[in-house]
Amino acid sequence: EAGFDKGGQTREHSILVKTLGVQALVVGVNKMDEVEWSQERFDEIRTKYSQYLKTVGFTDNDVTYVPISGLHGINFKTRLSADVCPWYSGPTLLEALDAIDV
After folding, report:
1. Strand 25-29 vs strand 63-67: parallel, antiparallel, or unpaired?
2. pLDDT in tens, 31-85
3. Residue pair 68/93 in contact by the 8 Å Cβ criterion
4. Which end of the chain has a smaller Cβ tally under 10 Å, C or N?
5. What is the rounded distance in angstroms from the CA atom of residue 88 to the CA atom of residue 17?
6. What is the pTM of this model?
């Protein structure tokens, strides 16, 4: 979350990709394993970041959010199991990237 604070890299990268003409984003919400795949935490991050992205020029339809664990490689290629994260039934990170129309 430090990257999202004022002056953080997440904010800078958001402005940069919009300036470069990127029309769609896939946001990997990382370290979800550390919060036991909490839907509340995921929604908190998604809401906060979505509000910022709107100021940059992205709409909710332009952005796909995917809960992941980078350290363990969970939900990158292989779908999360329902017993680990019962509230998420969306795409894996790679599926979300593959679905972008370029």
Report:
1. parallel
2. 999 999 999 999 999 999 999 999 999 999 999 999 999 999 999 999 999 999 9
3. yes
4. C
5. 27
6. 0.91
